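Hi R.,

Here's the input for the glutamic acid complex you asked about:
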Amino acid sequence: MKLKSIFILSLSFMLYTSLQAKEGMWLPHLLAELNEEEMREMGLQLTAEDIYSINQSSLKDGIVSFGGFCTGEVISSKGLVLTNHHCGYRQIQSHSSVENDLLKNGFWAMSTNDELANPGLFVTFIKEIHDVTEEMLANLPADLSEVERERLISERAKNLVADRTHGNSYDGFVRSIYEGNEYLLFLTQRYSDIRLVGAPPSSIGKFGGDTDNWMWPRHTGDFAIFRIYADKNGDPAPYSEDNVPYEPEFHFKLNIGGVKDGDFTMVYGFPGRTEQYLSSWAVEELVETTNPHRIAIRDRKLDIINERMRSSDEIRIKYAGKQAGTANAWKKWQGENKGLYRLNAINKKQQLEADFLAWLDQHPTKKEKYGEVLPRLKKMQKDAAKANFVNIYINEAIYGSDIMKLSRSIKSILQSEGSHEEVADLKGRVNAYLPSYFKDYDTETDRQIFVALSKQYINNVPEEFLPTTFSQVKNSKKGVDAALHDLFDKSALADQEFLNRFTSSSTKDDLKRLKKDPILVLGDEIIRIYEREVSPKIQTFNQERSEAYRLWVAGLREMQTDKRFFPDANSTLRLTYGMVESSKPKDGVQYLTTTHLSGVMTKEDPTNDEFVVPKRLRELYEAKDFGPYGDDDLAVCFISSNHTTGGNSGSPVINAKGELIGTNFDRNWEGTMSDIMFDPDQCRNIAIDIRYTLFIVDKFAGASHLLDEMTIVTERP
Ligand code: ARG
Ligand code: GLU
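And here is the predicted structure with glutamic acid in place:
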């Protein structure tokens, strides 16, 4: 090869690598140091200070943690918050009934008076982030036990927060990063009067249902709109009719100029949990044991729920949220396992561990410090394997039925040895939660789940962890199924009237009945097994784990001095950047970056409730009545290469100028292993294009008054 062409080749290689998808969920306050230069090379037209600042208004002031489990972005001068339909799903469900079905029909408040309050829902702004590692770790005695260390750490965190929130209206918390090697203080402001403003029908907001979930190409209009209310001074206040729409420091401009391949993108939000530093032994347990078993348990549970939901509208509404939650993780675990196998993840982890050992051999002082860490990571995983396994079955199979979950609360009342007031208080709390429990309860569905999941437990968990009740069931002459049905049918825990009486003013007879209740007896046995055989091992495991991983991550950071590290996601504010980028999920197949309304129409299937298309949407499509949001066709979703995870749902997808071009709601199936191991070739996040969102609000729902509050721009960066 000629020199010149080698030069061109290496130049284009350099360009190519810097323009490739980027792993990393970066800390906003460190962007200037670690990322700004690269982001600008990739196309960013803002400074790090425009993205995160504590001195001036910045993009972060338009971002909220939505309820602690999702993300939202402020999109108007009057506090409108955009998030996902699936993030507001439980709220939408809570306002729904068979007669007034907001899940099915959607909802649009045509004036602020119609906006619906949501007790319990809150959004949190991040005001400031500070590195408090020194304060947290100063003079920590070296020989502290892990328990002592934790106690001291949480005490210091409490004092720090009290200190820094004294005399201002902020709340705060301290979170560890890098497995306890560093600590950050977050000062926050939480608003708790959050009202529902608009949601499309599920046939748009959940179009494609479980079939399309975690998949590309995707055609879901997964958005919902809420509004933050504040007191007259703009400060957080509990719900009150006197509250007024909140006027934010910053709201996102919405760019409807369109999205093209190669466009620079950022996703700014609250990723929940990643585990990039897991050892090979932990990954092995995850892919070979944990995931297959919890997938199998949920297979059964979902078969039942899905069939019951199809049988009646009432059950469909009652179980909508439970079904979505159960199915979502179930499908993700399957994609994660596939991806980890494809990446050869266990092997790669083993390689890293071998490199680490080789590095230790060359550095005696490091060996002294880190020589024990790998043997410890291995041993603790093996030691806890059995307890972890049983724990999966207790969590997923036992507490997979509602009746078993309820048994825990009733048990705590019965067992409470506290004063009369305490018992009364406990009863009061259970009593208060019974109506919402039974609102979403169907006895026959739960009976079937209880029977099926109990069988899974009986068939898979080692004898020594079988509660007496299950041993009897196993040997019952009636057969296992009939014996399990009996347990359920004899229990008082599916009897709402009885429970109401018991939790308000119980008689001696009620108590007598409960003492013999077969479900409570079973629940009791399970708790005893858990407390004696499982929990101590898991506690030891957790302590060993926090200590060993703290060392492991510290060691890795010392070894890989030229690597740019980022801490695992832990529900704190992070920025990821990448670009609108296609991918090749398998040989011969390429994923293009954009889907369109025409694709919705192609997927339409009136006989399958996951793929019903609303009549009005079809009319608009046929008339090509897309307003300013489309021409021949209308963009619906796009993929980009941002490193995201659960909790990033609802996060803004932001262009090079800091304007909103979409709302994140999912990842592609081939990329779901990114929580453990990221692959720039495969990992893509999925967003709803802001043009589709606005089209639905404006043209489909006729809620165009909302657009008057927004700032809409058309010029591409
Ligand atoms: N997979 C996305 C997430 O993890 C969306 C889930 C909601 N959609 C659904 N069909 N269940 O939350
Ligand atoms: N749907 C997810 C959420 O609720 C986001 C998808 C993901 O895990 O990346 O946060």
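One thing worth noting: The first strand starts at residue 63 and ends at 66.

Cheers,
M.
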